[in-house]
Amino acid sequence: MQSLQKSIQSVIDSGRIGSPVFLRSMLQLPVKDISIEHATNILITLANLWMPSSPESIQARRSPDSIQLTTMIRYLGGQTAVLSVNRVATDQTVSIDLQLIGNKGTIYHETPPSRHHNQEFIIDLTETTDQNQLVQKSMDSGQWVKWEKV
Amino acid sequence: MANNKYGVLLLGGYRTHQENYALMFAADPRCQLIACSDELDAPADRVELNMQLADELNLPYITDLDQALALTDVNIVSLCVEMERRGIIGKKCAQAGKHLYLDKPLALTVTDAELIVQAVQSSGVTSQMFSNVYCPWAQLAKKAIESGEIGQLRAMHCDVVFAKGHPGTAPVGRKRQEQSSRDKYTFIQAKPEMFDIGVYAVSIINWLSNKAVKTVSGVTANYFFEEHSECNIEDFGVLMMSMEDDITATITGGRMGWMSHPKGGIQRLYLVGTQKTMVFDPYQSRLQICADETPFQSPDPHPRDPMGMWKHTQNEVELLPKQSWISTGDESWQNREFSAFIDAVEAGKEGEMHAALAAQSIAVITAGYQSAASGRTISID
Q1: pLDDT tens for residues A85-113?
Q2: How many angstroms separate the CA atoms of A69 and A65, rounded?
Q3: How far apart are CA A83 and CA A25, in angstroms?
Q4: Given an 8 Å threshold on Cβ–Cβ distance, is B217 in contact with A64?
Q5: Which residue of A has its CA nearest to B265?
Q6: Predicted-complex ipTM score
Q7: Is the CB of B288 inside 8 Å of chain A's CB atoms?
């Protein structure tokens, strides 16, 4: 099975949606799995792979009980990404919905309901960037934080 | 009341949502359309468009709004004048004791919105702004919150993005520099979409949560259309909000092109709670049809309506139906929107999306523009 990021990258490379301009990504994460911060780093890494320019600044909001963490990223070329990780019950599977809007078309992806077990998605990143400090800095200040390469 | 029916005065004509609203009022057996009207000094081209709708509906056109408001058989004003004039005219109509059905967004500025809210409150009339609250998905979301099914609310994410217009003409990779305020909203070829479409998403967030928005961060962009770029208005916008009780909300509002969605565009709401996350989307219950038939194609742009905003202009272009997805849900929500307003008038109470609630959306979106212009998160008092 081809990984999600490579499938999407191939559509971007084909030019069918034009130049990516906005990404909305919603990851549902069972409590037992990886931390909400690490999952956010995965989404940020994916967004940065797909967007045609470098990140400029980031803003983050997390609920005090860490049920959800949402980040918004502005890119140097004016693109935007809104990335959310939500905790769900342990009996649920991990799922990801996303809309990658290009200036000429859109990619939609939804993890099918759990009865479609043959259609789980794979993300095979070899490494993710760690943006925990930037995310925390934005949550502390309530403001945009300038992107710094880690 | 005329013939025991609520008399409806129509303000605004062609190239406004009055094209749709007038038909919805006409379809309600409790209502009777009385006339079209506008201010004596309304722009001449606007008056011409108003008169064209009056002709189509076989209604008289009253050139002086004051005379129209003096008619005792007018009980309701359906208000679709340009955004720039909504505050003053809405106030005048409410002070004349007329119930107000208000086009969205409520007004151009917080000050204008407040004029309407105060007049509605002091005169005791019923008000309601057009919104998505009667869509089945919004009603289900309300139930999920009120029943406690999702637990305590932690986040809400709502996207409303229309699939209309011919994209790919805006300059690629150029950042938009937003203005902190705007004097002009109405252009022939385009509208500021974070305001005009984003208001659907913001008003749903306000209505569902019943919580105050404390801070707003906004980004606006020219991603798709040269028409918006030439008018120096955005075709897409994103807002991130902090609300009471540590609730986070995000919305997108915009327009992304005819071919970007199998139906009318993205319309989706996520509710994130301590018990579960729920998704609401009018297209999730659907039939998907694959058949040997002509697929949808972008229509030729109408020279006076390239974004496909108005019914009468879109009737003049060859617009194939989008029929690969057929919703299996109830699509009669617009009938409920209007019948609920008349129900509220009869009951002597406010509409679900009343002027004061609608005004909150204006405050949020205005703060969003200020944020986009300054690059700062803006606090709302």
Answers
A1: 999 888 777 889 999 999 999 999 988 66
A2: 10
A3: 5
A4: no
A5: A106
A6: 0.95
A7: no
